[in-house]
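agent: user wants the structure for Cupin-like domain-containing protein from Duganella vulcania. delegating to structure tool.
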Amino acid sequence: MPQAVLLPHAKPIRELHGIAPEGLTDAILTATQPLVLRGLAAAWPMVRAARTSPQAADAYLRRFYRDASVNAMHGAPDIGGRFFYNADMSGFNFTSVRVRFDAVLDALRDHLDDKQPPTFYVGSTTIDACLPGFRAENDIDLGPRDALASIWVGNRTRIPAHYDLPDNLACVAAGRRRFTLFPPDQLANLYVGPLDLTPAGQAISLVDFAAPDFAAFPKFATALEHAQTAELEAGDALFIPSMWWHHIEALDSFNVLVNYWWRQSPDYMDTPVNTLLLALMTLRELPPAQRQAWQEIFRHYVFGSDGAEAGHIPPHARGVLAPFDGDAARRLRAQLLNMMRR
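agent: tool returned. relaying tokens verbatim.
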């Protein structure tokens, strides 16, 4: 299977050693730069099993399985582990199926020693629903953060560069993974594909990291100048800040990742992707002068907001310019839905 080139311009991600789970500080979990946390999950029984053998890791996972089904992705051997579009970008080069979790483990076991195996991948599956009891033995306490804990299981895979809105603590529980990260300002240099036809929900870079086509994607060379990379083993973790682009390779024939997602914002806030899609529909085709005027409006009320833009309005009359809470968000959401139905 093709592996991504060791990108010559990529800088190593900053590393911290000797941090125990109870030593995760707010400074670490609110960082705006990625951080490798070597050995953070080294004490997990899952990690100890994985360091023994893939078979031991498989057996450990099966201890917690209780007849749950999962969404799995399956690709033919010729995709080389890279989940992507089909040739004309009308669909994808893999199939998604709903199967028993132990059926995926069986498939991974049956192809463990294949030189060019089919690709199997279970992504973003809630641990407590799939493997009840697993987190009682393998978990990171993130304090007051309401984190979603998910598990990712597969063989050698390549996940194209994409971003996620939440902050992400990714813990390698079995196998090795290589992460290549780019800051949010590299968007224009990553050649991102469609927003509304995506392999797994997030828009992805169209660049093949195993064979970058610099003739088709010349600005990717600039992105590489800002890239950061790290290879993690079982027990290591990586903090990925919100909105950072990340390309992920699972390097072994049996890989398990546990990750925690959380947002540094109130639960009532909708995803900004909704705003982007509405902006494409309502702003992009305006004449340039009108787009510039709306850019200033957004700067004033949103991106440059310091809370003072409504200071001249009596508090009782500020409406949506007042600070939000859950009730106000629900009222505005209902109002917007009614407006969209017209």
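agent: one observation worth passing along. The domain at 11-262 is CATH 2.60.120.650 (Jelly Rolls).
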